[in-house]
Amino acid sequence: MIIQQQTWWRNYIDHLEFFEGKTSKDPKDYAAKCAPKKGMIHTNIGVTYCTFKALASMSGIQPVTYDRFLKLTKEDVSAILYYGFYNYMNLKYFKPAIALSLLEIAWAAGPDQSAKILNKSLAQLGHPAPMSSRITMEMINQAGKTGVNQLFSAIWNNELAYLQSLPTWPNYGSGWTTRIKAFIDKFKP
């Protein structure tokens, strides 16, 4: 993948690895339902076992087994991000700061959450687009009419407000805030 040669992409993979760590079996995490059995590891470098089963094959990762999941590398995570998210979400049409913002949100809550946050941000900036659970060409076109700095700020203000509304905020809010601040400091246009 040529994108893996881009400095901004490599910096994002490093950011992801830093904040995701290696493995998790936190029973309070929503992803705990993805573990093959209760109490087993359900997340590896930010990839849930559910995501691995769904996207590993299309990302060139074989075999699609729990043992292979436990051996994920940074390169595997990059492939899953690229094939399962970046391409699927049409992020190549955005400037890197916006593409990575939408990718970061999707990584935590799914591509539909990214579409919602993008749509809300565009509307607030006077460039509304019809709502969709996916990022559409209309959203992409409207984003092109918006300043990158303004859109970046609106996306992160809306994402933070969304996270603060979640019942899990008391458990994870401090960590989420730290991660968002680090993301903004590193990738702000």
Spans of 5+ residues with little confidence (pLDDT < 50)?
A: none
**Cα-based radius of gyration, to the nearest Å:** 16 Å
Q: For the terminal residues, how far apart are their CA atoms?
A: 24 Å
The main β sheet shows up as: 3 strands, antiparallel
- Shape field: globular
- Tally the beta strands: 3
What's the number of helices?
Answer: 9
Oligomer: single chain
Give the helices and strands as they follow along the chain: HEEEHHHHHHHH
Helix content: 55-70%
Strand order across the largest sheet: 1-2-3
Give the integer mean of the pLDDT values. Answer: 94
Strand residues, percent:
under 5%
Q: Which structural class matches the secondary elements?
A: mainly alpha
Description:
A three-stranded antiparallel sheet has the order 1-2-3. It is mainly alpha-helical and about 190 residues long. A hairpin with a 2-residue loop joins strand 2 and strand 3. The model has no long low-confidence stretch (mean pLDDT about 95). Helix 5 (about 95-110) runs parallel beside helix 8 (about 150-165) and helix 8 (about 150-165) runs antiparallel to helix 9. It is about 60% helix and about 5% strand. The protein contains nine helices and three strands. The chain is globular, with a radius of gyration of 16 Å.
